[in-house]
Amino acid sequence: MRHRVVIVGGGFAGLYAAQSLKRENVNVTLIDRRNFHLFQPLLYQVATGALSPGEITAPLRHVLSKQKNTRVLLGEVVDIDRGAREVILQDHSRLEYDTLIVATGSTHHYFGHPEWCHSAPGLKTIEDATEIRTRVLLAFERAEQEPDPVKRRALLTFVVIGAGPTGVELAGALGEVSRDTLRDDFRSINPAEANIFLLEGSPRILQSYPEHLAEAAEKSLIELGVRTMANTRVTSIDDYGVTMGTSHISAGTVIWAAGVQASPLGHMLGVPLDQAGRVFVAPDLTVPGHPEIFVAGDLAHIEQDGALVPGVAPAAIQQGQYVARALHNRLHNEPVAPFHYRNKGSLATIGRNRAVADFGKIEFAGYFAWLLWLFIHLFYIVIFENRVLIALKWAIGYFTFNRGARLITGDHR
């Protein structure tokens, strides 16, 4: 019987692990709750109408259709029987494995206030992105019909909580939407008068970037009409806005970008977890005491040079590829070297012609950083047709300032 590999999760780590096993003499089963791979770094562009959901997703069956040793199952894993080496699905079916790769990613973390999710959606899924897009566009539509100036001002106030790369990119995109995209679309309001706040609990935005790059990003945000507020702790969020201690911002739209926690699947492994729910893994990304179980991506807690390997797409891709190599070495009785993360740098865009790039010894901001951001993100898109579509949409948007996916969907009565 061929070695049975079960991969739970079709994100960057899971998908790249599956693809890297295409020439191995193993049977691979990839399980995911969704039938598609999601390119999360561009979710904020769906949330602000620049791209459509189908352009940043790739059907898993299509991506893996030519891998004859791989099958895809649509399902949700609800438990793991480590003794029997089986994963248990929501329909109570069981799937046996010889090697298990768990790569189920992360979700929102509201720091002990899960009730905030209703008033301040995060940005982790396609549903999150379309919900935020609807809220943003509805705010302008309702402001157009609101006669009360106080209520209209609140509707035109947007608060983004968390000034990491996601929060900065969201705030910058909102600035472009209000000042460029919607400039001539309304008659009773001026969208450029929208108030956009970016709140951060740390001393400055982009805390993981060098200070001078964070300052360049903040300058670009100010030019887009975004007001940054560092050292600001949120104490309450409701449908009327955000409270920070004794101060309050009345806002029609609040977006959460402040924190993440690992997938709940980590709790099913019965091993120690960190405060964010990540699994403490061995240097070869296996679960202590269970060398047949690998954990990769945002669910894995692994440190290198005294720092946690970041939960970013390049790290997840490298871990997925490493797990496939480690399994290959095991099956051929070859030694397995510890995982080593190669930091290829960090990029964050603030808007048109604005971005910051940190490559260790090389740090720069501005137009060339923005071009590099475009190229690298296109490179990691899984399906070639989507690369072409996104490049075309970006080109059209650059010259027309238009965002063609400005759709209000769902029940918004």
Oligomer: single chain
Separation of the first and last Cα atoms: 57 Å
Unreliable runs, pLDDT <50, ≥5 residues? none
Note the total helix count.
10
Note the overall shape: globular
Number of strands: 27
Instruction: Bin the helical content.
Output: 25-40%
- Specify the CATH architecture of the domain at 114-258: 3-Layer(bba) Sandwich
Describe the structure.
The structure is a single chain. The radius of gyration is 22 Å and the shape is globular. β23 (303-304) and β24 form a beta hairpin. The strands form 9 sheets. Strands 5-2-1-9-21-20 form a 6-stranded mixed beta sheet, with helices on one face. Among the domains are: 3-33 and 75-108 and 260-331, FAD/NAD(P)-binding domain; 114-258, 3-Layer(bba) Sandwich (FAD/NAD(P)-binding domain). The protein has helices at 12-20, 43-47, 60-63, 126-145, 149-155, 165-181, 211-223, 313-331, 367-380, 384-400, and strands spanning 3-8, 26-32, 36-38, 57-59, 70-74, 77-81, 86-89, 94-96, 99-102, 106-108, 157-161, 195-199, 226-229, 236-238, 241-244, 247-250, 253-256, 260-262, 279-280, 286-287, 290-295, 300-301, 303-304, 307-308, 346-351, 354-359, 362-365. By secondary structure, the chain is an alpha/beta fold. The chain has 10 helices and 27 strands. The longest helix has 20 residues, at 126-145.
